[in-house]
Amino acid sequence: MILEPLCMFSLTLETQTIKMGESIILICTVHGIAKINPDVTRQFAKGSNGDLLCYNGHITQTSKYEEILSDGNKFGLMINNVTESDVNSIYQCRYRFSTVKQMIGINEMNFEYGPTANTTFIEFNNYDNTSFEIQINFTKIFPVPMCSAQMKNTELQFKNTSIMEERIFYKVSFILVYVDGDQCGTDLEIICKVGRSSHPIKTFKPFQECKCKYTKRNKRK
């Protein structure tokens, strides 16, 4: 019996962006054939020990994994509710008697973990009508974001003050100091770009009260 060489296979991550809690798809392509033979062995496994995930359509954890079959020379594995344990791992694809292995790693191009209410902390210090300071702390995020504050036709960039790695995530801090003029009565919106995605963080409406409003209000009393 002739074994198919490893060069006839490829195992790739089809999902463009990995996000925790969502799904990713791994695709095994058997080159040199037009169609997958449903009567031969198809298998997905994980880790250096080859822990079985799927064998000829039989799933070890039905809520976690799904096999994907196509009419062509590919078959795939959908991994649901992605967690940290699903990434930076070796996956194996088997067809007939040959196997290909691929590390599914994360990087700034394929993985995003955006800010949440539980991981985002903002401190706003309003000194007067002409100056203020904003500090943002993210306790869990990936990759390191780029943050800005927008008001009227002005866009201000936050400066990064701290970056710490924690497992596969970052813990980062930013600061913005504004001393350039009167912006009372306007809204200020903080937006952070994490990977390819933009995330509204907080909007202050208005972030600085005008003194004249207080004066008129007091005169009416």
UniProtKB/TrEMBL annotation:
InterPro entries: Ig-like_dom, Ig-like_dom_sf, Ig-like_fold. It comes from the Eukaryota. Residues 5-94 form the Ig-like domain. Signal peptide: none annotated. Gene3D superfamilies: Immunoglobulins. This is Ig-like domain-containing protein.
